Amino acid sequence: FRNLLYQDASYFDNPAHAPGKLITRLASDAPNIKAVVDARMLQVIYALSAIVACIVIAFIYCWQVAILGTSLILLLAFVMIGLAYKISIMNIEQIKNDEAGRIAIEIIENVKTIQLLTRCDMFFDHYETASKQQKRSELKKGMIEAINYSITQSFMYFMMCFTYAVGIRVIYQGDKSSDDTFKGIIAMMLGAVAVMNSAQYFPEFVKAKTAAGMLFNIIYRKPRTGDLMEGDRPEIRGNILFENVKFSYPQRPLQPIMK
């Protein structure tokens, strides 16, 4: 918010930085980031630690099962990264096209004028149209999140199927004892459980990543006019004369403001 106060006038003249959109970002981005910096973050850290420990234990007792289980976990990781990238793109597009919040804020700020002009129904229709667009975008994201949830929550059963298949073959050929083989299988099964427990926070982490990117873009943006706290402050004496000074906003270069 401090950085917004120091931005140049052309920043607010851009339709993408309308007051309603900026207020929506300030109101929603910070809570979205806060949503994952709590017990959910600890749960994910615990799950990652458990996965690493289970893989190490599996390699100690039965490397054949460990290689298969690790490959399945890596495959799942690539799928989740792809889905996260897809949802991140959709989140960014949704933020750029977020008209519902802007319309609601600007309507409420000017509600007296709208009532006097008897245009309540018209502005309500605008808000309803923008809300429906947001709803369609959320439904598309919901489908992708449902795919991720179904894959991760059934991952343990895939792990069980493949590791038992390889384990039975290893025991049959006599490469490992049944005791060591089952220890490796159980280790990979526990790793799959850790994946299932942490994957339920997938939507919150993706949303937080997008929100953090948008928030830090605002925090680190430098005004085009420079930092007003930097520079020299000379002592000026005498007359000051301005000649051939012109100014117009970047969004309306053909409409001079000062001449």
Automatic annotation (TrEMBL):
Q: Where in the cell is it found?
A: Membrane
Provide an example Pfam family for this protein: ABC_membrane
**What highest taxon heads this organism's lineage?**
Eukaryota
**UniProt GO cellular component terms:** membrane
Q: Which residues cross the membrane?
A: 44-61, 67-87, 146-172, 184-202
The protein's UniProt keywords, in alphabetical order, are:
Membrane, Transmembrane, Transmembrane helix
Q: Per the record's keyword annotation, is NAD included, yes or no? A: no
Q: Which GO terms describe its molecular function?
A: ABC-type transporter activity; ATP binding
Q: Topologically, how does it sit relative to the membrane?
A: Multi-pass membrane protein
Grouped into one coarse class, the protein's main location is membrane
Checking InterPro entries in the record gives: ABC1_TM_dom, ABC1_TM_sf, Type_1_exporter
CDD domains named in the record: ABC_6TM_Pgp_ABCB1_D2_like (cd18578)
Q: Which residues form the ABC transmembrane type-1 domain?
A: 1-207
Q: What is this protein called?
A: PGP-14
Instruction: State the species of origin.
Output: Caenorhabditis sinica
- Species lineage, top-down? Eukaryota, Metazoa, Ecdysozoa, Nematoda, Chromadorea
